[in-house]
Amino acid sequence: MKGAIFNALQEFVEENHGYQLWDEALTNNTLESHGIYTSTKQYQDVELFAIIGYLSEQLEVPIPDLVRTFGEYLFPLLMSLAPDEAQNAPSLRTFLMMVDELIHVEVKKLDKEAQLPEFSYGGDSGDNLTMLYRSPRKLCFLSEGLILGAAKHFKESVSVSQNSCMHQGADCCEIEITFNE
Ligand code: HEM
């Protein structure tokens, strides 16, 4: 996982829960990086999961909820790096359809080491869209939060749920987005 994601998590924790909690999360885990994250470098996913696990325990917030809220916070930071075509998308639906074949493709072009999920799309009818998420990192709840953050950005109202999830043994996570009027 990119250092930039760790940097964003640090900001999120410090803004919402104070500096001390972030320091504790670093000192209470054995981290190969010693908690020093350069935005452009890659770090082991286990470090992210260890920090999130610690935060979840201390804040008494279940991991899915914590990761989803972080995803919402992260969205504007990622959006500022997105290609113009995605930033100028006419709607949330059009934007979401660009994540796999435009946005993440451009990320990979600029950074061969980037570790990105795969999305395929289904159920694209009227007020629904299904995004099938596949990644060895199983960060489906981060996706949910990013989608909610994107909805806020496009000033649209959506509900997000999962019909099947890799955490329950499925081979991909089926994220269903319902567009509310
Ligand atoms: C709703 C929209 C989006 C969704 C659902 C999404 C989903 C994700 C997820 C779940 C990850 C974590 C890695 C994994 O699961 O394997 C990720 C990583 C990432 N995404 Fe996206 N993303 C979205 C929008 C964006 C945008 C707008 C950008 C801007 C260029 C972006 C750039 C990145 C980058 C740089 C990473 C980190 C790659 C790494 O650690 O090497 N994403 N994305």
The CATH architecture of the largest domain comes to Alpha-Beta Complex
Write down the CATH topology of the largest domain: H-NOX domain
Topology order in helix (H) and strand (E) letters:
HHHHHHEEHEE
Shape: globular
Number of strands: 4
The small molecules bound here are: protoporphyrin IX containing FE
CATH class of the largest domain: Alpha Beta
Structural class: alpha+beta
Low-confidence stretches: none
Mean pLDDT score, rounded? 97
Summarize the main sheet: 4 strands, antiparallel
Rg estimate, integer Å: 16 Å
The CATH superfamily of the largest domain bears the name H-NOX domain
| Order of the strands making up the biggest sheet | 1-2-4-3
The fraction of residues in strands falls at 5-15%
Number of separate domains: 2
Cα separation of the termini: 36 Å
Total count of helical runs of at least 4 residues:
7
| Fraction of residues in H or I helices | 40-55%
